[in-house]
Amino acid sequence: MKLYSYFRSSAAYRVRIALNLKNVDHELVPVNLLKSEQEGEAYLGKNPQGLLPAVETEQGVLAQSLAILEWLDETTEQAPLLSGDAWQRAQIRNLAYAIAVDIHPLNNLRVLKYLSNELGVSDEQKTKWYQDWIITGFDKVEQLLGDTQFCCGEQPSLADVCLVPQVFNALRFKVPMDNYPKIMAVYQHCNTLKAFADAAPEQQIDAQ
């Protein structure tokens, strides 16, 4: 299996965590978003969506991180990301989607590039945009968390796999995190686990 990744891509970060949790052997293939390599003919030939991440398997190429994560969960038994009964799995998805669907898309690189290049937004305004949408989302996520070490229950789930990269980005863009003690507790605990630590952006072969 090949994972096409960029070290700071939140969506690729999610998949790196899951592959580590599940001990899935894979080759990481860097695609530099800042150099627009995802728009090159070679990559588009594999993934017409032109986004990261993508996994290349014997069956073909699969993109969209949530689809990849659920596929991994359905094809591997180790470290299930969706466990429990139907209600518990729905709660995990609820948290994961609140991050991956409601927060992240407004702050990904192509949106930030559009703000700068097409709308002429200043760096200061762009940072405020980034911070405001994370704060709006985290205000809600904080209320959904309990007092466990992970987002839901006693083991890492799809929700944790989505939360950790989003907190990394929040810290990178200097979002004040004092109002989110539960979020930060989960983030810090997850990063004590090797699967999360090894997936961190600074540990990647393309880190800059």
Written overview of the protein:
- The chain is α+β, with helices and mostly antiparallel strands.
- It is globular, with a radius of gyration of 17 Å.
- The mean pLDDT is 95.
| Class of secondary structure makeup | alpha+beta
Main beta sheet: strand number and arrangement?
4 strands, mixed
Q: What's the shape?
A: globular
N-to-C span: 25 Å
What is the topological layout?
Blueprint (H helix, E strand, L loop, with lengths): L1 E4 L4 H12 L5 E4 L10 H6 L7 E4 L2 E4 L1 H11 L10 H15 L8 H9 L5 H22 L13 H15 L8 H10 L3 H6 L9
Parallel strand pairs: 1-2
Antiparallel strand pairs: 1-3, 3-4
Keywords:
208 residues, single chain, alpha+beta, globular
In short:
The protein has a 4-stranded mixed beta sheet with strand order 2-1-3-4, covered by helices on one side. Helix content is 51%, strand content 8%.
